[in-house]
Structure prediction request, 190 residues.
Amino acid sequence: MKKTNFRIAAALVLLAAAVTSGCFGFGGFSLGIFSVPVPVSPYFQGAYEDMSFENARYDQVPVLAPIVDGVPEGLDAPSDDEVIRLLERAKPDNGGVPFLETRYRNDVRIKKELVADYVDPPRFFPMVGAVQVHHVHYKCTIYYEQKIRVGWPIPYTIERKDAQEIVYIDKDHLHAVQQEGGQVNGYQPM
Prediction:
């Protein structure tokens, strides 16, 4: 009898602790069905993180200061990270198929050449104002040593010491236009 009473008392204490702590949605804030964790594949998580990184880093168009003395100042040349990401996006099968064919790039060298640099006449963009579009085009040649390992049906390795790829990158950005009276539309100097 003592064991039964003790078990009932212990169960009531645990139930009271769970209810008052908010575990079951009584006595506190609860997300309901959304409080149950859902597993996410690492593939989809990595793809979402890459998309967010590229959007924050490369996909936004900045509005720069007005062009002074007819010499437009452009953005920096594309980074090595941007060139490799664009190469992987352009050739999605470049990594091969796991366990059947795997491709590696070693000793990567990137040569960036400025192809074109020109500025359009001023025009009005909604939510931005009067701006000039500055176009900068780069030709990026990627030199690397390629190693392809095939694992089925007969394992073998192919090595190319002089592999190369060419990627063209267009970097457009905006320059604010200086209005009469020295006011700049769309640009706030710091």
